[in-house]
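Record 1 of the preview.
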Amino acid sequence: MVSLSKGNQSYTMDGDLSVDVSGATSTASLEMKMRDNSGEVFWVNNYVLNISEAVDFVDIEASGKFYNPTYGYVVLSTITALRTYNIYEWPSSGELKIVGGEDTIARLIAIDKNTCRIIADTNGDGNDDYDSGQVPWNDL
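->
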């Protein structure tokens, strides 16, 4: 258990973190609850991060469930690994999907090293009703 305090804010975290490294592949797993000084509990459930390294790029895959006491649950999953070349700051390809309550879905799509796109069904009717178009990574 870890407790943090700064000014009038305090947090207590409790959970498990494991990391497995095998050659060029690393897997991290996290299960954690965090309680703030108002008594709200945030939860990271079965979060798994897989990192595969190659000569000039890294592929990243993530999955897990996140709970916010105000907004509820979201479930994160990688559709296609996010590929980041060693010479660039941002992914050049890949797609993440986030599923929220009431069948809402958002997708983050890496277009290239400079831009991405967010597409979402914000009301859960099965139709995309938000499209950011191509936006610079730095604008997120």
